[in-house]
Amino acid sequence: MYYIFYALIWTVSWLPMRVLYVFSDLMFPLVYHVARYRRKVVRCNLVNAFPDYSSRQIAETEKKFYHFFCDLMVEIIRQFHAPKKEMKKRMSFENLDLLIRHAEEGKSVMIMMGHYCNWEWNVVFSLFMPGWIQSSPIYQRLKNKRFDRLMLRLRSRYGAINIERNNLIRSILEMKEKGVTGVFGMIADQSPKARHIRYRMQFLNQDTPVFLGTEQLARKYGYPVYYLDVKRVKRGYYHGTFLPITTDPAATEEHEITTRFMQMLEQSIQERPEFWLWSHNRWKHSKKAAV
Q1: Domain coordinates in residue numbering, the chain
Q2: Residue 196 and residue 19: Cα distance in Å, rounded?
Q3: Is 285 a residue whose pLDDT tops 90?
Q4: Which end of the chain, N or C, is more open, meaning fewer C-beta atoms within 10 Å of its C-beta?
Q5: Which residues, other chains included, contact 267 with Cβ-Cβ below 8 Å and sequence gap of 6+?
Q6: Closest residue by Cα to residue 276 from 65, 70, 53
């Protein structure tokens, strides 16, 4: 089954984006109306996150999300064969000079981002960085080894050196020993397992358990922390801005970095809510679970 799936994805990924978006448009009624993929989770998340929205606004946002979700699927597929030149046109970044300046001072940088817009395309920022700076997205190994290798291959296409989450501290120490500076990219809006919950905060009007790992590492090693604020310019084109959360983590209070990130992400979501991953059961470990 895996090889059939891989052959299909490999073949389709050669198609240009304009053709893939036709597939996306055809997928929408199947995903939304027929399969009803996670409709209950999405609707419940939206209702709880936006209590002031009318039923009509909730329904409109829900449909916009599913339209974008189908676009996201074909965009990720295209990534398997999209050349560097194309991806550099589709993704642009602002304030990269700030990251480079930290690296010139011998400091690695941590980037916090959410499941917002096309987070898989964020790895393209490695194409814009000088070769002497190591671009390292942090990922969590998938249970299925074949799909894990597939996604790792996808995320490494543009020169990024991916680091498995459990190997991050070891990699940091090895890089420091070799005098290598890096930019570590973290998808930081995921839900920690119940036994690992150490901090909760209000996020999108709900009690929300959050990860503290990025903050803890930044404060321990003195790494500046930035938020990658991504906007969808138009279909298939995104612009990311690196916004400082703190350039002096040692001077921050406990939980301050994490709280700032979640607040910045919340602002992005409130501006264009359809571009966040509402199908994720984000609040399953909240004190008052939404679903």
Answers
A1: 1-81, 87-275
A2: 44
A3: no
A4: N
A5: none
A6: 65
DSSP 8-class letter at 116: B
Q: Identify the pLDDT of residue 291.
A: 41
pLDDT at 144: 85
Sorted by sequence, the CB contacts under 8 Å of residue 177 that are 6+ apart come out as none
CA distances from 228 to 12, 108, 239, 250, 257 (A): 30, 16, 10, 21, 14
* Residue showing tokens 């036709």: 22
Q: How far apart are CA 157 and CA 153, in angstroms?
A: 6
Are 223 and 107 spatial neighbours (Cβ–Cβ below 8 Å)?
yes
CB atoms within 10 A of CB 173: 11
> CA geometry: angle at 13 spanning 239 and 160, to 5°?
50
Q: Which amino acid is at 194?
A: A
Per-residue pLDDT tens digits for 90-146: 999 999 999 999 999 999 999 999 999 999 999 999 999 999 999 999 998 888 888
Per the CB < 8 A criterion, the answer to whether 80 and 154 are in contact is yes
Contact at 8 Å (CB) between 240 and 93?
yes
Residues with Cβ within 8 Å of residue 49, at least 6 apart in sequence = 204, 205, 206, 269, 273
Instruction: Report yes or no: 202 and 49 within 8 Å, Cβ to Cβ.
Output: no
